[in-house]
Specification:
The structure is a homohexamer of 238-residue chains. Chain A has 6 helices and 9 strands. With 238 residues, chain A is α+β, with helices and mostly antiparallel strands. Chains A, B, C, D, E, F: Pfam families: RNase_PH (PF01138), RNase_PH_C (PF03725).
Chain lengths: 238, 238, 238, 238, 238, 238
């Protein structure tokens, strides 16, 4: 039995609130149950040095957690003077994932920065960030098209992400904090809306996992991501 | 005429949403018009080194702005590796202001950290942070009393803050961004609920101000703060 | 009775020693009683990025304290790897104050950096820095005129600063360390030589202050600054 | 055809030179073809703060690359003042992987630090680091047993790692730099000597991968790791 | 001919002003011609971690230059966030030199920090710092004896330092900036008052130096230091 | 009697292994007995800002120690976020020493970076770095000539370095760790292959040294360096 009473293949309620703040080209509040992340997409007419003059764009991400997004207050990274290893890992993952859905030539020499700021954490902040970040990215691209700065959206594929794991011997999808902190194995999966894999990051915290467990987790991830892709499409169609 | 159509002595609509997030002892979303700040109060059973063993508590504040809280994206301070001078100034002001309403002996050897994170900026983020931060602090103290960790709230006075300035020759209260960026003089005033001054920080951006202008601004501040104190009381009574 | 035996409206002896060191365009040792600060003004033919190509100049300030300027040795900020919050606040105040007396178009694309280094501290280091920094700035501008790099000094107003506060219930001017460390309320006031306010920064350390106390403090500040402006004029006339 | 002429399921020549330097409890030069990494294991009689007093030990890893380990010189991270995101990711992976083979209660309150320093890079530095790091760890544990500080080795499972990917449409194992820099998909797999998975980190650089491609890559990884485990056993038996 | 008209073996006028600032246990303004350095000695009742519990003391030094101590303004190290390589080298040299004259057992578990802050630079700031720093150290030790915290001064030997070099083919002593910036070879020599060497740091900027040139420079250094030791004794006897 | 059984004027066995790694223009493993340092020379077609447009080149050095190169593990400087004072001193010494043998006009607008990374330390790491770094520099210059980027090598003199010191009252050459950690006086000497001095850095750790001791140490250094120069020539002739 999962602490939340959910079925093993049941994801939490997903809410995607577009235009959550007014300044950004794309701004989305994403909620996976009690996990809440503000995702904004900012477009700038410049690219990092290593891409200059190549006619191609870039998508990058930054991730942060408000100090009291969690049960006990964490140190503010700006005050500490550096981003922790976990933050660095997560923002690199978000950036790679969202780049995989884009046509960088079609984007042209622009950088889109996806800022994912967790205001309340209850497990799955990185998968929520990718899923909500994609909607912010889509809105920002639509904004560029509407403003006549791009002829068409450079997005080629939707991107969504969910966690899977083994909780008390059973494979489950979309772990909340109560499950995540006790999971024996934890895997984050990123897929596109064609059903192909973008990223698979599995870690055996408690005990190493067998090949058949991996197969079961991948099946659950495919099911969960299909529902997230549907939620993204519904949100973007409104 | 003010850009927003407000009267010179009219503050923006104020909203104070308590229990905005679930983990913190106090958590408030404060809105001064389009300016929105998440204020959380976190209580920890320890004090900084310089206070250890004296039986007294401490209240401190940290301030941050999400990178895209503003019209153009600002660099994330955690990524840059240090907090800017403006951030440091603001968080020191918030901390000093809120300490002025507390009885530190009654707090005992505890630290309350007020985190003020701006999710949308439209002028007055520091005054909104102080005003909302006080409500979060009050909730956190009530939480400690309810949990039996404190016999009574160590709060002695309510604290609120508003900006005043001279916009196109006229003294006005609670400047929004359109006014603030064009104001000739800008002053942040912090007062307690007894009508006394805690902090006065006036800066002549455009032209130095005369003594009579200062008097007019202080009058406006007193009126604005009276309304904010009323809003705090109403929010806390619900 | 004040610890120094001064009258409430009596400032300390002020000494302004010009040409204190030989390399800078302006170099002044300012002394407010036992508080001693070396102020140098350095002119460079460039402006910060945000001003480039606009034909306007910039004045900025940096502040430091020798580690043993105070009674107990403080950590060297260069060794610690960052400037503290107090330093950042003070140097921003000095810069804003001195910019208020300048015509930036007349300065042209030049940056003047005012370095204020406290070699002995006894209260009022920021007000002494502003008062002495102005004399260094005036000397540097005269040096540019003498060298033919500027047709006339871009200084429009003299700038001086003094502290006021409430010590044992009595408003007093120009607090020394013995007073400052026990003051209930402390306010730094910056004015120009036309008698208008540039900055007012009041903080209630001990008890919040009433409007009539504020009025008394502003009166004392006006008197004290008038005497500092006279001292600046005398020093510059020699 | 692979650039090196290897078969798709053929790993590079592996060399594990024990006692490569004289000071460390375990010191191994690991070579995967032209990739060469010095792995040392250092034992200290203390644990990080979060483990103190629990009777359990810790294994952590640090990773670095000599500036000219690569074709063009990279900036020295010590000179730059921080470790890059890639470094942080890799050293966290190495640490998690090696912890998975250890019984932390049996280790007692000791920390083993695995330093992996790449002196020549040709693809697969992280998989070589894990594979060589395990041998250094095993030697360090044997050293503790020999010195009477531990009754028996706390190692429960061997750990090894290999990369797999899709190069020009074909799944291949143990990619060298020529392949890695052109691979469409890249996956690092860590397994224990019982054939279970510890970590799976797959990234679609070029094109997202299908489930059948993932299966093929996992098959290759299992074969490659079996050969690495055999090489570790042979090295440790000498 | 030297730019200053001095003889090859002639040092600049030396002034040692004791009690230059009021807070430190020892405070000296040292002047070697136009080079002016404030040296303070601060005594604290604690030692660095590596010495704790051994009954021995420590002497350390920190060095800084005011940004406009030189002809063109240098960046403030506190603002830049780190001390430069030259600063680190110099402060390590000062600390080692002054430790060589002390009996650390007699000092007991105390740390003396010598702060050397250059307010005007004209060559030889490190040699002036050592020479002036010794007088500040002697005053601080006398202060501890006078206060009854030490039974007798732990100083065993006076320490002084001078530079020598080869300027336009001629060995000269105590180079000023005009000479130093054109010297072919530059050597800083530290000796004690018994005429023995503490440090010799020679660098061939322009051309490597022969053994006979080295001998000539060492002779000049011995002569110059003898005069500095005399100046220290005279200053301390007043 | 020296711990190693060597004669006072006997240096350790020296090995210079060229082409130790494959990517750098010059790559040498230098061994002074058990001290082992990897020295690489990297050539880049750019110069630091202060040299731009002058037609001259630059040689600089960076130094590091693997954390477990020593008997107890040292903190990794990249993890700590800054290079220590000792590292800064050493890399500045290596850079200055190697520049002394070069004709910078002949090098043209190129920077050669010598990276010296100690993989095993047993005393004399800086002298080994200079001696091995020179061979790497020579190989890199030969590589540039062979590639047609330079008409001839810009090296004018060979550079080598050895330590001398006073161990148990006796002057000795090339101290190993057992001697170095107990030496009363320690001096690093750098000379060119014409027998002239480039750097002399002597420090009296235990007791100040007399002039005659200095003479004896310089004699030993000259003898030791002559043997190192011969070893360099032999290595480069193969």
């Amino acid at each position: 039995m999962r602490p939340s009473g959910r079925q093993p293949d049941e994801i939490r309620e997903v809410r995607l609130t577009r235009n959550f703040t007014k300044h950004a080209e794309g701004s989305v509040l994403v909620e996976f149950g009690d996990t809440r992340v503000i995702c904004t997409a900012s477009v700038e007419e410049r690219v990092p040095g290593f891409l200059r003059g190549q006619g191609r764009g870039w998508v990058t991400a930054e991730y942060g957690m408000l100090p009291r997004a969690t049960d006990t207050r964490g140190q503010r990274e700006a005050a500490r003077g550096k981003q922790g290893g976990r933050t660095v890992e997560i923002q690199r993952l978000i950036g790679r994932s969202l780049r995989a859905g884009m046509d960088m030539e079609a984007l042209g020499e622009r950088t889109v920065t996806i800022d994912c700021d967790v205001i309340q954490a209850d497990g799955g902040t990185r998968t929520a960030s990718i899923t909500g970040g994609f909607v912010a990215l889509a809105d920002a691209m639509a904004c560029e098209v509407a403003a006549g700065r791009l002829p068409a959206s450079p997005i080629r594929h939707g991107i969504a992400s969910v966690s899977v794991g083994i909780y008390q011997g059973t494979p489950v999808v979309d772990l909340d904090y109560a499950e995540d902190s006790n999971a024996e194995t934890d895997m984050n999966v990123v897929m596109n809306d064609a059903g192909d894999f973008i990223e698979v990051q599995g870690t055996a915290e408690g005990h190493p996992f067998r090949r058949d467990e991996m197969d079961a987790m991948l099946d659950l991830a495919q099911g969960g991501i299909a529902r997230l892709v549907a939620a993204q499409r519904e949100a973007l169609s409104q």
